[in-house]
Amino acid sequence: MTEVLSVTSECAPLVKTGGLADVAGALPGALKAEGVKMRTLLPGYPAVMKALEDPRVVSTQAGLFGGPARIIAATAAGLDLVVLDAPHLYDRPGSIYLGPDGRDWPDNPERFAALSWVAAQIAVEGLGGWQPQVLHGHDWQAGFVPEYLHAMGGTGRIGTVLTIHNIAFHGLADAGKLRTLKLNPNRFNPDGFEFWGRISALKAGLMGADRLTTVSPTYAGELMTDAFGMGLDGVMRKRRADLTGIINGIDEDVWNPETDPAITPYKDAHGKAKNRAALRAELGLPEATGPLCCVVSRLTEQKGLDLLLQALPTLLARDGQLALLGSGDGGLEQAFRAAARDAGVAVRIGYDEALSHRMIAGADAILVPSRFEPCGLTQLYGLRYGTIPVVALTGGLADTVINASPAALAMGVATGIQFHPVTADALTGALTQLCDLFAQPAAWDMMQRNAMRQPVGWGPSAGAYGALYRGLAARS
Length: 476
Ligand code: ADP
Ligand code: GLC
Prior knowledge:
The protein is an alpha/beta fold. It has 18 helices and 18 strands.
């Protein structure tokens, strides 16, 4: 058995803002077959505290980054959890990252530094007799783990992995916080965790972790380029030898069209018709001859949905339709609400798990026109549900979809449509191709069959993480 502590700021189904939660929630189960025992260290947000089963307080601290804290071992939703209950840091209503003003909580650096500090402590001192061999951190929230491990004398004995789910978020703090964040001032330089005069939690992790992973092979390559590295491409090039891209899987029990309780279950794509009719009725969309397209997404610059607003008239002119579920940027929310004045467009602003299943089951295609996409999960749901993905040729979208090129169509292997560059014109072209293919039943059926056969589970990727952990554990 390899013992791993996963260090994460979100974990489905307990607390989720995006795909990181899905991955953190699915990995422990997927890794069991690999002989890996993974426990998950999570902040004690109200939603997490409420969900705990069989909680046991394992240790207490009088002062952890400004207040008392308890470490609680518990289970919840089949996960083996270690929860950092520190009310002064986590007992807050609303979003886990943002205050009521919609901006980052000003003490976010301390909130997640505390999480990383406790992870390092557990690795060095153990927790009720249990000790991990590897600390696997996710994103900037776990960035300081190697720094703290070093300060506590654990470097070399305990392996560290940092997974980059999105390099856009750096976890920056002012240099004045060096002391409150318990960081070594000697490491505040460009070879340490300094980023243009500020403290970068992500850079600390990128420089210090033994191994780095990201969530697709293509994104691993992109991270080393100026266009995608968000100022950290030099660091990524430096760490090239220690970086691997491991594609995400999806939870095949939660996303299974044959058993999904949110829909009328189906085995093959013909079964989509009932779900399509139900979705149209639910959203007030009329019958149409073109494809019903869906989007399930955060509404942010990353996701390229402003391009969809520009390309939409082309889809509608072919009697195609759009059903969008999302929330985020106020301007985009407003623009999509305005677009929904057209009879062929239905927009639901908000976050709704069950509706996301009904949309993906009922739609003919799913659109993901992201400017960058480390992996992306919704195109994988689309494949599994026979809902043809139309995606930008970037990151994990490039790695998971087989483009309907003339050759791929002739060979009968296409699963979706990819477009490049990520512009409104190229997306318009992709939507035109989608409408053309939708009008050719033989080609369309073939793509749906291929899509539903595509492997999208955790299998090989769980194997890759298992091998990575074993390699690190063997050194200690
Ligand atoms: P990201 O993590 O960048 O947001 P991913 O595609 O990796 O992108 O993961 C997004 C996850 O969040 C998916 O599980 C998707 O279904 C879900 N999701 C996004 N927006 C919504 C929403 N408005 N309602 C329900 N689920 C959503
Ligand atoms: C990030 C990325 C997304 C990825 C997810 C899970 O949120 O934006 O592409 O699928 O993490 O790794």
